[in-house]
Write a structure and sequence with these properties.
Number of strands: 28
Largest sheet: 6 strands, mixed
Shape: elongated
CATH architecture of the largest domain: 3-Layer(aba) Sandwich
CATH superfamily of the largest domain: MoaB/Mog-like domain
Radius of gyration: 31 Å
Number of helices: 8
Structural class: alpha+beta
Helix content: 10-25%
CATH topology of the largest domain: Molybdenum Cofactor Biosythetic Enzyme, Chain A
């Protein structure tokens, strides 16, 4: 049995960052930028009006000029193409380029227009009411990689005139539930059968962080059935099996994988829930055998699979980020395995669920944290600071 940290290090060593691909901006939400992009022009590329009004020379105001001859108009997409001299003005609208010679906008509320002229009538005219060229960004501005692209990032890329950013290819993950006792959701189970839940929860977890998750048919407790389902995962970057990784008579995943060339990196981790975990390389792809108990599979997904997907996407990968919060109650001492306990953070205090059986999905559904108790941790009193992983 190895430690959680050592198991994570070995899992991360099994895969590299996937190659990049060009996609359209409309497909880029949540994708990971694989190559930095650089702006080739200033934004805005010209000095633009920030308000509707009249473009003039600032020196006119300084000289005490009170009225101007209006000689034209500048609108967004329809600039005034001639120079503006002293005592002259152009009608201008928000976002329009300032004509040559102008560097100040009188807002329309402060002037009166009459007979082709404007007269200064009211208000402070100190603000220039313009957006200088390059006031957002200038040529050479970089958006660095790796970076998970947000809606705001995509708007910036569009402004930089980047139509097809290069992003990391999504990892393809094949999920295989194993066991004669399982049926798919929506089927009618016998009294001795249960509905497969792990693959669906894990698929949702993986899709959320940017992987392509594909649920394969349930593999039955026979070597032939396992081999048939494994054959359906040939195009996957990562194979996740759920169940069948222990040492019982019907736990055949390790045997079936070994027959297909699995080079096992480790088996068993000193953690609760999730002890019967294995990982390795099989047929040019990474394989992780997760425990069959629903909570064990989901917790191992959070601790091990999420960081692996992040590495495959080119993001910084390592142990899940933790926070601390005071315990809302006393907590007993821990044993010889690191314990990841379902907990709820309420008004800044951490409530650890009393029932931690690894079959109880309802407790996991109501949790928003995994409280971490280290190996042989002593009893903790109410108010003690405890580490947790936000869910």
């Amino acid at each position: 049995m190895i430690s959680v940290r050592k198991a994570l290090d070995r899992i991360l060593a099994l895969s590299d960052t996937l190659p990049g691909e060009k996609i359209s901006l409309q497909q880029a939400q949540g994708r990971v930028l694989a190559q930095a992009v650089t702006a080739t022009r200033d934004q805005p590329p010209f000095a633009a009006a920030a308000m509707d009004g009249y473009a003039i020379r600032a020196t006119d105001l300084a000289a005490g000029v009170q009225f101007w001859q209006v000689i034209g108009e500048s609108a967004a997409g329809h600039p005034f193409l001639h120079a503006v001299a002293a005592g002259q003005a152009t009608r201008i609208f928000t976002g329009a380029p300032l004509p040559e010679g102008t560097d100040h906008v009188l807002i329309q509320e402060n002037v009166e227009a009459k007979d082709g002229k404007i007269i200064l009538i009211d208000g402070s005219n100190d603000p220039a009411h313009l957006r200088p060229a390059g006031s957002d960004f200038t040529a050479g501005y970089r958006l660095n990689a790796p970076r998970r692209l947000s809606a705001q990032d995509i708007a910036l890329l569009a402004a930089m005139n980047i139509a097809q950013p290069t992003v990391t290819r999504r990892p393809k993950v094949a999920l295989i539930a194993t066991g004669d006792e399982l049926v798919q959701p929506g089927d009618t189970p016998r009294n001795d059968q249960i509905t497969a839940s792990n693959t669906y929860g894990l698929a949702a977890m993986l899709q959320k962080i940017g992987a392509e998750a594909r649920i394969l048919p349930i593999a039955r407790d026979r070597m032939g059935s396992l081999a048939e389902v494994f054959a359906l995962a040939q195009d996957a970057d990562l194979i996740l099996t759920i169940g069948g990784a222990s040492v019982g008579d019907y736990d055949l995943v390790a045997q079936a994988a070994a027959a297909l060339g699995l080079k096992q990196s480790f088996y068993k981790v000193a953690m609760r829930p999730g002890k019967p975990l294995m990982a390795g390389r099989m047929g040019g792809r990474t394989m992780i055998g997760l425990p069959g108990n629903p909570v064990s599979a989901m917790v191992c997904g959070e601790i091990f699979v999420v960081p692996l997907i992040e590495k495959m996407l080119g993001l910084p990968a390592g142990p899940r980020a933790t926070k601390t919060a005071p315990l809302a109650h006393d907590l007993p001492a821990n044993g010889a395995r690191e314990h990841y306990m379902r907990a709820t953070l309420i008004e800044g205090a951490l409530y650890v669920a009393q029932r931690q059986d690894s079959s109880l999905l309802s407790i996991l559904s109501n949790a928003n944290a995994l409280a971490i108790s280290t190996i042989d941790a002593p009893a903790m009193l109410k108010g003690s600071e405890m580490r947790y992983i936000p869910l």
